[in-house]
Amino acid sequence: MLIATFNINNVNRRLENLLAWMRKAKPDVVCLQELKAEDWAFPADKLERAGYGAVWKGQKTWNGVAILARGKKPVLTRKQLPGDHEDGQARYIEAAVNGIIVASIYAPNGNPQPGPKFDYKLAWLGRLHQHATVLRKSGAPIVLAGDYNVAPTDLDIYPTKSWENDALIQPESRAAFKRLVGRSWIDAMRRMHPNERIYTFWDYMRNRWPRDAGLRLDHLLLSPNLKDRLSEADVDREVRGVDGASDHAPAWIRLRT
DNA sequence: ATGTCTCAGCGTCTGAGA
Fold first, then answer.
1. pLDDT, position A64
2. Is A34 annotated as a binding residue?
3. Fewer CB under 10 Å: which end of chain A, C or N?
4. A248 is in an annotated binding site
């Protein structure tokens, strides 16, 4: 079973890119982030025609997350992260697919830092940690996939000083991610490629794609009971190079059935 | 400070967010 995460950066603007990649990669499950569409504007009919059922949580202009499943509709279990009733941002959706609980995650960017947006990012990652623990203790197999907006270590960013003050690599951001992963969750990409520089995001600015000046921000965390099923993990980098591409590429894992 | 891209709105540019 192939499970992918893809920050699409506007699902309607880039629907043709998404469908072209899906025809080629044939993922069983796709977690999407940054839909940038309200619920009514989500292209469910077109995805259905491509063979995928979907659950989604949209929002006007910003954020928005979805889970797609080939040949079936995911069974929705949650549409928001617990822990803050005031939080109306569409950054979390969770569903059961093929016996696995899958979450599509879009963590806050957190810039500029320091400031309220950075505080919100750290608090949000803390809430995710709490909820991830609840999920893990349920004993179900779980995949937490999405854009965490954290490059966990210096191996997850090209050698540079340009991002020194950016929320994506601050020690507090990295510590929050590390706490979440803890000793239980498996960072699937790192498990399969312990020492490689692997990126999932290349900023539009400053020629960063042609220079391969990327960051690894999109992660698939597996609950420990999925350890022996993980057979492959990679990034479909070429997707970043096509016309009208998102600034992220799809990251994916393969699980033995 | 800049670079890129996109969208919304007191709109054919500007500010905001990533």
1. 96
2. yes
3. C
4. yes
